# Entry
Amino acid sequence: MSFTRDVVSTTNAPQAIGPYSQAIRANGFIFVSGQVPFDPATGNLVTGTIEEQTEQVLKNLAAILAAAGSSWEKVVKTTVFLKNMSEFAQMNATYEKFCKNAPPARSTVEVARLPKDVAVEIDVIALA
# Structure
């Protein structure tokens, strides 16, 4: 059985700042690492509302998916990590703009802390 595994990287999303890849393309799937709301154009963290942070995260994910030859329409699973579950409705309203038709399966969990003390981190699995 053959196995393919390729690193996906783009300058249109924040660069990996540790021993991980932005994404891995493996046997027809794209596994995108969790993204936080860094603006790749400025390198600055988006520290506004949960809606602003979520939108930046989703844009970062879209850029990585595009670099991998995929898109939001091919996402099959997401995991949303929220610092505060009371912001779920606001995050969800922003998320819905990116996942309109046949939204992917999703888990959402509240966590004690996220990198750089951001409010949201999201990872995705998509078809290539």
About this structure: Residues 5-127 form a domain with the 60s Ribosomal Protein L30; Chain: A; fold (CATH 3.30.1330.40). The beta strands are 5-8, 23-26, 29-35, 75-82, 105-110, 120-127. The longest helix spans residues 50-67.
